[in-house]
């Protein structure tokens, strides 16, 4: 599988806030409502502010988040596992939210990273237009590249609103994606331990 590449568009090349608000007005009219009626008048501004928050991951460099590592771990060489990291993302096919949890583990060599940094890496990729598969691979790759660990395991379990509120209308289907590298890939016992610890 080829590595997913994703280069955010530089800020200087992005449309102006006015152009983005015009686009929202167009979508409102296209849906069948009047963008100038009172209740909708400030909606374009609110939508672009919400977009800033939902898509703030484009302005975070995951490699930078992982660049500060610690080497003094007193010989700790077992898995580091983070469970139940909230994932709030948007599918790139419908710009509909998908919500769930990420589980991340790695087997350190000599470098470890602050635990909050791993959460930030998940967020950096989640707060973009995504597919769950790509996001899962990107999280694993970023940790792999930065820490050169003996292995990385990532699982994402999420419900896609483009499936629950439209299309097939299946509210209860959750999608699980996993990505294993290094020893997690070659050693099924390690995979099992990871899945057991995270309760999957
Ligand atoms: Zn979708």
TrEMBL record:
Protein name listed in UniProt: GTP cyclohydrolase 1
Binding site for Zn(2+): 91, 94, 162
Listed InterPro entries: GTP-CH-I_C/QueF (IPR043133), GTP-CH-I_N (IPR043134), GTP_CycHdrlase_I (IPR001474), GTP_CycHdrlase_I_CS (IPR018234), GTP_CycHdrlase_I_dom (IPR020602)
Signal peptide (from-to): none
Source organism per UniProt: Algimonas ampicilliniresistens
The family this protein is said to belong to: Belongs to the GTP cyclohydrolase I family.
Keyword Zinc annotated: yes
Stretches assigned to the GTP cyclohydrolase I domain: 22-198
Keywords for the protein's UniProt record, in alphabetical order: GTP-binding, Hydrolase, Metal-binding, Nucleotide-binding, One-carbon metabolism, Zinc
Pfam families, per the entry: GTP_cyclohydroI (PF01227)
EC top class named in words: hydrolase
Pathway assignment: Cofactor biosynthesis; 7,8-dihydroneopterin triphosphate biosynthesis; 7,8-dihydroneopterin triphosphate from GTP: step 1/1
Listed HAMAP family: FolE
Catalytic activity: GTP + H2O = 7,8-dihydroneopterin 3'-triphosphate + formate + H(+)
Assembly behavior: Homopolymer. Toroid-shaped homodecamer, composed of two pentamers of five dimers.
EC number(s) reported in the record: 3.5.4.16
């Amino acid at each position: 599988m080829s590595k997913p590449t994703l280069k955010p568009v530089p800020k200087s090349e992005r449309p102006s806030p006015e152009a983005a608000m015009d686009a929202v007005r167009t979508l409102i009219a296209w849906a069948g409502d009047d963008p100038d009626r009172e209740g909708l008048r400030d909606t374009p501004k609110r939508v672009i502010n919400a977009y800033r928050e939902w898509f703030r991951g484009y302005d975070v460099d995951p490699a930078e988040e992982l660049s500060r590592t610690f080497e003094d771990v007193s010989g700790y060489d077992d898995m580091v596992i983070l469970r139940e990291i909230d994932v709030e993302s948007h599918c790139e096919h419908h710009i509909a939210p998908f919500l769930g949890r990420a589980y991340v583990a790695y087997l350190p060599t000599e470098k470890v990273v602050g635990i909050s940094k791993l959460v930030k890496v998940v967020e950096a990729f989640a707060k973009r237009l995504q597919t769950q598969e790509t996001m899962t691979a990107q999280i694993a790759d970023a940790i792999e590249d930065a820490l050169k660990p003996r292995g990385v395991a990532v699982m994402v379990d999420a419900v896609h609103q483009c499936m629950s509120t439209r299309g097939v209308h299946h509210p209860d289907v959750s999608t699980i994606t996993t990505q294993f590298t290094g020893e997690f890939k070659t050693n099924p016992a390690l995979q099992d331990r990871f899945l057991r610890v995270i309760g999957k």
